[in-house]
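Dear support,

Our group has been running a series of protein-ligand predictions, and this particular one with NDP is the one our PI (initials K.S.) wants archived with full inputs and outputs. We had some confusion internally about which version of the output was final, so please treat the block below as the authoritative record. The input we submitted was:
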Amino acid sequence: MKSRRNFLQKLTLSAVSLPLIPRFNSISFSGWQKSASQDTMLRVAIMGLGSYGTRVAEAMQDSKKAKLVGVISGTPSKISDWQKKYDIPPKNCYNYENFDAIKDNPDIDAVYIITPNALHHPQTLRVAAAGKHVICEKPMALNAEQGREMVEACKQAGVKLLVGYRMHFEANTLEVIRMREAGEFGEIKFFQGLSGFKIGDPSQWRLNKELAGGGAMMDIGIYSINGARYMIGKEPIWVTAQETKTDPVKFKEGVDETILFQFGFPEGIVASCLSTYSMGNLDRFFLNGTQGFAEMQPSTGYGPIKGKTHKGPLENPHITHQTVQMDRMAEIILEGDTAKVPVDGEEGLKDLIIIDTIYKAVASGRKELIDLS
Ligand code: NDP
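Confirmed final output from the archive:
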């Protein structure tokens, strides 16, 4: 029964707008006899059954539009545990050596890559070559060069590339963006982003330059970069940055512990941000305009996201971020919908260009221009 899926996939590639396609449950095309619920679900395989992959899998159980149907893992015991827990058939289970064969599996639409950062680039290229849509965790890659290759590979393969920016679907975040667009803060002048936590086990991949591509900036600082962009609603044009390191044994060469960075935006808007692996519970956004403000703390954690504006508290109910994200990503992939704040490969690439420029500014000690063109 791969006809409908292939048809949908082809339509996704074309310029045809799809808002109604997965909804015409009453229409019967020859060969399209599967149940409506199955037909309208994005069928996802998770690659990398670690801590965040486990969280995403749990959250997907409550998704109305995305379903966990497959796994790709280097750990056989995890595969059998997940098979039992999520009723995953053997034919939808792969390891890192054989997952290219997913191209012959009509029952998987998309692969969600939730592995260490350095693996995102090669794994995305392989998933794209297999003709499956890619959802890739942040940071999308180790640098902009890799990011560009990923965007190009997915374009060439005619598959979508989305990045796991769950905050782009979070209700209180979207409310602040709505208020800003409505002019309720007046002219935006300043953003502050504080992103950090105290990292534990020194042997973990997050502290290994080869696998992480850097340190706190790649992992948690990216939230302040991305947040500055969606809270202000403009792209930064320059950055200055300063690094401090208190523990050079734990944070080896190329693994940043703490970086302070400052952005300049058009119209004189400025931002001041902190990325760190050495301070606990640092998760705060503050947006200031001529007529008001928004402050959020926590601002990017798993929630509930809390905060207030000059008009009062932000009161949207908390829904598990990854559940909302998977619902919305299914709509983007299957129905051709778009996100209010983009989650595509180009969006991921912008953050990588900015990270490259922040590291350049740390090294040079100068103000560096950010070229997002
Ligand atoms: P974990 O270490 O918990 O899990 C990573 C998994 O990747 C492992 O369990 C393993 O799964 C697989 N893997 C494959 N190769 C390796 C390798 N060489 N070393 C270690 N693991 C390997 O990491 P997280 O789940 O916390 O993070 C994974 C990705 O998700 C990162 O890119 C991170 O930035 C991102 N992330 C995003 C979050 C968000 O809120 N959007 C939150 C947390 C993480 P297996 O045994 O199945 O092969």
